[in-house]
Amino acid sequence: MHRIAADITIQWRSAMLRFALLHLPSREEAEDAVQDTLTALLQLDPASFDASQAKSYLFGILRNKISDRLRQKYRAPLSYDEAFEDDLDQIMFDPRGHWVDGVAPATWVNPQQQLQNDQFFIIVDLCVHKLPAKPARVFSMKEFLECEAEEICSTLGITKADYWQCMSRARKQLQLCLHQNWFEQERAP
């Protein structure tokens, strides 16, 4: 496993560090998050590890390590009662536990097919890294780290208006970049 881990480290460490630097305030914290991720790789049972899934595994762990660090740094702890005080279950489900009409999630055609394409993710990564730092950080926290808007505003010290402006600009620039570098390429003969 140590040889496999060494190969994987060589292959993915710089991409992981770039991703961590986008979200964490210091290089040291980013390095620590990457190192924690690679340590988790070494703790795996070699028989259960599929090297072809290394990228998904590593970035999933890294995302959690970054989220943990951001939450620990910026979020005040909530009590159990505060965390679950909404009545979301009563809004979304009937007394038998079935979805209320009009609330159930829609069935998607098959979004996993395109999302599983490694080349697509390479282009997405390049497009995100072409964004200016602030919109890239906001977009990445929202879409990759799955943070809520309030948490992003609090973490980055920005207003809601600034958050929405960053998200709008990031989405527009990503749409243009993906169109030019991915979707147009698919249509070319």
UniProtKB/TrEMBL annotation:
Coiled coil: none annotated. One of its GO terms (biological process) is DNA-templated transcription initiation. Residues 13-75 form the RNA polymerase sigma-70 region domain. Keywords: DNA-binding, Sigma factor, Transcription, Transcription regulation. Belongs to the sigma-70 factor family. ECF subfamily. GO terms for molecular function: DNA binding; sigma factor activity. It comes from the Bacteria. It comes from Comamonas koreensis. The keyword Metal-binding does not apply. This is Sigma-70 family RNA polymerase sigma factor.
